[in-house]
Amino acid sequence: MLIHPYDSGQSEEEWRRWLAEGGKFGTLAVSAAPGESPIMVPTHFVLQNDKILIHLHNANGVIPYLRTGAKVSLSVIGDYAYIPSQWRAKDDANPQDGVPTSYYAAVNFECLPTVIDDAEGIVEILKATMVDFQPEGGHAELGVGLMPYGIMVSIITGVELQITRVDSKFKYDDHKTVEFRERIIENLMKRAQGNDMGAAAQQRRRLEQNAK
What we know:
30% of the residues lie in helices and 31% in strands. By secondary structure, the protein is of the alpha+beta class. It has one domain: Roll (Pnp Oxidase, Chain A), CATH 2.30.110.10. The protein has a seven-stranded antiparallel β-sheet.
């Protein structure tokens, strides 16, 4: 992932907070056989300090490749928006002078996978998932042999991803002037389509963060 200095995540706390607030859902990329394209697996995940936990159906074709222990990537993208050319024009009198771009936040994890096959280990991953995504409870007790989840343990494989590298990027024109960025924020809020509000919030946050 190309990251210019002005687009770079400024701290570990920044990308961790973004993931905590925006939801932990990404795409796992696993190398397949030589000459074949990587296998892409969209999935929720649990982030625990320096490791990531996921669980997959046993039938998922990516599992044999995970068992090799070769490095994988998990990519998370959000708060993205297309910024049209006229918004980035230097002179309002000449709107065609601008060049369009994309705004987005992205975190890419490089990881070493370990496959978890034993039932107790899988249950622990499920418990961690529930604590993270459903902290209010309201679900049945999780345990080997306990319904309704117990019967599902036999068809699930757990995966622990040990994080070896993190690249974070917040691409919101941080190298432009304050006035320029405030104008983009205003335009995003007026358009209010798709992820525009999220992109505007990220740009505002970065603007205020850089002003400190």
